[in-house]
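Convert to structure. Protein one:
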Amino acid sequence: MQHETRISADYNPATSVLRERVILVTGATGGIGSVVCRQLAASGASVVLLDKELKALEHLYDKIVEDGNPEPAIYPMNLEGATFDHFPEVAQRIQEGMGRLDGLLHAAATLGKPAPLELYDMESWYRTLQINLNAPFMLSRACIPLLRQSDQASVLFTSDHSGRNGAPYGGAYAVSNAGIEGLMRVLAAEMADTTNVCVNSIDPGVVATSLRAQAYPFENPFELTRPEQVAGAFVRLMGPDGRDFHGQSLTVEPCETATS
């Protein structure tokens, strides 16, 4: 079992702690992603919202602007169908439009089809690894040159206990999370000492999201941790208050009350 470090989500940053910072978030409209994006913007960041559905992105954009926060940027992209050629374009457009990149949060994920490996559907296997592992690698690779230019940059991979503990029947989802942990450790080792880029992975725990509902359809979501109770840990790690963490597999300690 991989060693994990606990990180509290009880975090209330100063309003301008991320002012003039640019942070790219994949899976931006998801259950956790959308809450984190709004909190990043509330902390002063210019957030680049990347997800596959334009209407959902536009809705999140409107929410952030209505909150009186810095105007975000929208980047519609379906990670499942993206090839390596698409990812350098993301970095190029951020550089041209925003002039910098200070953070990369990988929050996009798909469940796949939980099943024994000997019976696992091959199409689902490739699709799940493409979204959960290949895309984070390719996007990170494309963004590293921009992140190196920042005085304080962060790369944060969203993970899961199934990848750290080898959960049976987790299939491609568990395997992709195990790959994410390996990717995080390699990248962290390469970024250490020679760059200002902090690299970590984070397991938010059991949170009421659509992904969780897909895996456990009979579970009562009102008995689970809310996204607002874990988002603070993500925000902390994307800013200067998270600089003490590098190369660590982190697990969130939810705050008692949900904050927007």
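Protein two, convert as well:
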Amino acid sequence: MEAFLYGILLQWKLDLRNKGILLTYYVVPLIFFGFMGGIFTSITPDTKSTLIQSMSIFGVTMGAILGSPIPISETYGSELKKSYQVGRIPLSIPIINNFISAFVHLFIMSTIIYFVAPAAFHAAVPKNSAMYFIMLAIFIVTSLSIGAILGLTIKATSKLTMVSQFIFLPSLMLSGIMFPTKILPKQLAAFGKIFPATWGFEMMKEANMNFNLLLPLLVIIIICGCASALRIKKLRID
């Protein structure tokens, strides 16, 4: 257990020293929050009621989809994988360490938004803060599950970045955080429901245990978890 906790702490510190990861976990989401928060609340004052949720969705999606897959791809797509095998360390350990480290980083980033937004932009605080953070944690886990399977499946960094962008951009544009989904064509609104950002945004706005919103996220977690386990098993054989 001590070695396991040390591995998580080490991964957390490595992420802090990785400029690319640091950008996607903290710098870009918080700069976007500071810049767009003022614009959104000035143009449409009603956005104050959902500013915390929308900016958190943006930050988590960016970190999980664009940031978290990179260390995974670098580990399993390099000779480092053999080092784990030679040392008889389970190949699941690197992805678990990365998952937990990324979760902590993204939760911290979202917490910063939660406390700064009311003071900076007079954003409304969720009525049920405890339930809001539970919903946030579920959304982070869901997003990181997708990031994990991306990192395990795609070895080339350039290709990984391109595929991640194809997921990241529609997630934002169709989730409702940029503009209401009601103004979208029905086909695009329906297509947006395959992304966790859409369900996460609605769930975090309610800050309540709505099973109809929670179920799609749980399905994504289970599918990605099973796919990741099968991928790790295949890597162990290769």
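The chain is about 80% helix and 0% strand. The chain has a mean pLDDT of 86.
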